[in-house]
Amino acid sequence: MNKKTLIKLLAFVTGLYFVLEFLLPEKIGGDFDQYEVLSPAAARRPDGACQVWYVGVHRRSQSAVGLVEVDAAGAESVKQREPVLRRSLFRESDQRGFAALSAVPTAEQLILFYLGRKPDDATVLCSATSPDGRQWTKCGPVNLLLGAAGAQPTAAPADQWALTALAAAPQDDGLTVFLARRVAGGLNAVLRGRSADGQTWHLDSTPLELDGFAVTTETQALAAIADGADVLLWVRQNGGRLRLYRVATEGRATLVGATDLPATAATLGVVRIGEGYRAWLGMARALEDAPTPESSRQRTWLAQAVSGDGLHWILERDADRPVAALGRMGRPTYLSRALPRASQALEVIQAFALGLAVVNLVVLHGKKIAKREGNPLNSLMFFVAFSAMFTFTYLGQCEGLPGIWKSGYDFMFDDLQRSMGSAVFSMIGFFMISAAYRSFRVRSVEAGIMMLAAIMVMLGAVPLGQLMTSWAPEPLQLPALANKLLNVVNAAAFRGIYLGVLVGSIAMSLRMWLGMEDTLFRGIESR
């Protein structure tokens, strides 16, 4: 076997591995709720039985809503094998699945509020309706307004709220609602509001003042039940205790108490049962012999607890006798187990390639200095800059050395390198403008349109363009026209060209992978 054939074979085997690793899932089989169980939400039927919905996670980017029906005594339960609500393929609001749930029974139907995950992992508050809790119809995103109803509320896009948890409770011909969100500076808050129809939430502009609430810690779970004119609100933050608050009509929250959950569950769903309460907890535990990745071997189940006052909980059913043993475990694929090793091998190859590049630069510039070829001063500056940057970078990361090394690194990287990079790019911009001016001639209608568009974009990017068209309506001012040209017209043309480039790249990659492109291997046999 000659060297060319050996290199082609290695390239084919490597490419085949990564193609299969991309196409095959990290695990095969298993139920939709096999990896994790999140945010149980419960509702009580007129016959006393309860329906418990939960977010079942198969993979981190794939989840669905499952259903378990529990009898009035909490002793028997039936799990629906298939999800009752799935993520959308084309609707952006829940393409990556679900994050949190809250169920509300009304006289006509059931309403399920949920946080859907967009492709960029942002959360959007949405709703769905069902006559029986098994067949759901999605209603789309919920309108969120800051300010009381009728008081000129402020609207905000649903995907800009950074929501983490929600709860809703029927009260006084409407709903009292709560939302946990991240606000400016990475802080967290819980907002209270009202909704008449479920599709529009009027939220108070001032967050609830909750005793013991840590604004720097994300809220994991909310649950709410109406209690006369007040609302009982359970709040659980990351790694924290479960706190119970009594929220009055005017929005004042009083801490009833705090307790540890009877299990390591982070989320819970609560319903009122007679004079007490019943809660369901989503549980997951990795098996001790779980292979890599661990998400292929986890046991998930729903636990059940009861309480007389909503604060002190007694675990009725846990892992030894769960409400529902949920996920049937999947099996990891061989390629998913080998992926970390392959990634480490690529990192080693990249390190060798970087070292080889440094050696080549040193040899090249060293020969130029020794033989005084070209301009040896440039080669000498390369050695000076390389040595200085390497020294300050290495010593600047060492503990116990004087701060001058760290200061030297900051000076060379932040002050010198970035400034010189900006200067080079500025000169390139002026060079491109001057070259275009010298070479461009308006000899056709198309060339004239291109020149006009270029002038509009350049003037729209500087204050002079806004000053020249300040008298015109805002959509006709140069900044707005330049933005439209760049983000609509130019973006469409660029994407078309980029798509063609990608198709050509795929064709060339296939030729290289299958060994049909011999130009890359020319001259190998003669070495």
Description:
This protein has helices spanning 3-23, 334-371, 376-396, 404-439, 445-460, 463-468, 478-513; strands spanning 27-28, 36-44, 50-59, 62-70, 77-79, 98-105, 110-117, 123-130, 137-141, 143-146, 154-155, 163-170, 175-182, 188-195, 200-203, 219-227, 230-237, 242-247, 253-259, 268-273, 276-286, 298-307, 313-317, 324-325, 331-332. The chain has 527 residues and is α+β, with helices and mostly antiparallel strands. The strands form six sheets. It has a six-stranded mixed sheet, with no helix packed on it. The chain starts with a helix and ends in a 14-residue tail after the last helix.
Overall 3D geometry?
Answer: globular
How do the strands of the widest beta sheet line up side by side?
11-10-15-14-13-12
- Beta-strand content bin: 25-35%
CATH architecture of the largest domain: 5 Propeller
CATH-defined topology of the largest domain = Tachylectin-2, Chain A
Which segments are poorly predicted (pLDDT under 50) over 5 or more consecutive residues? none
Number of domains: 3
Name of the CATH superfamily of the largest domain: Glycosyl hydrolase domain, family 43
Number of helices: 7
Fold topology:
Elements lengths: L2 H21 L3 E2 L7 E9 L5 E10 L2 E9 L6 E3 L18 E8 L4 E8 L5 E8 L6 E5 L1 E4 L7 E2 L7 E8 L4 E8 L5 E8 L4 E4 L15 E9 L2 E8 L4 E6 L5 E7 L8 E6 L2 E11 L11 E10 L5 E5 L6 E2 L5 E2 L1 H38 L4 H21 L7 H36 L5 H16 L2 H6 L9 H36 L14
Parallel strand pairs: 10-15
Antiparallel strand pairs: 1-25, 2-3, 3-4, 4-5, 6-7, 7-8, 8-9, 10-11, 12-13, 13-14, 14-15, 16-17, 17-18, 18-19, 20-21, 21-22, 22-23, 22-24
